[in-house]
Amino acid sequence: MKEIFSGSYYAFLVPLALLGTVSVNAQKKVTHQDMLWMRYSGKYDVSKDWAINLELEDRRFAFPDRQQYWILPRVAVSKSLGNNWSAGAGFVYYLSNSPADPKVLTALTIPELRPYETLNYNQNIKKLHITHRYWLEERFIRKNDGRHLQPGYTFNFRFRYQLVLEYPVTKSEKLKLRVADEIFLNFGHSIVRNTFDQNRIYAGLNYALLKYIQVEADYINQFQEKSNGDNYTDYDILRVTFLQTIHF
Asked: Which of 77, 134, 199, 200 lies in disulfide reach of 182, CB 3.0 to 4.6 Å?
């Protein structure tokens, strides 16, 4: 028991403190959206300690169908630090279609440049696998007036913490149950009213088709605050992911 908690104490401490700071006024306006996310996630091991990660993702409104976000791509380099820790750095090219209403035709596509750094801690409690992910993003979002792109970028930081629990539901361990929670917090000079950005709750299944190929289906509830601090969007999301691992 001492071994279990000594390795994870600090991994839990900061996220729990952050979660305690988040509150939502029930009287504020909340809208609802249904979405479908399709994702490819590749991990390419170039040595025992180093890996390259690649993700492509299409995020669409479900009713009616219209693209909202396009991640093209997310690329990162990661390194094992030992003692179940790893670190990495990467870059995301992110396209957002405006307005965020599936019943309205896209008026503007807004690009975002997003370097990021990540720190991960993994632990096992018998068959239960636990992952803690700490993620810092530097967000450069193209300036716009809602209809046209303008010169320059706005900038802010965003901190993310994700806790993932994974447990095999078959003896072969080909099928695994995954549940997770992730909180997003904004900070920087441009952030005035929405320090809390969003929270995502995940529940899904991961199935190993082959040794290095998996498919995953998740339900995600995403609760996001708008930049004005008064409006929120509650998303119900089905995400399907194709995962691939290649060893060089």
From this structure: 200
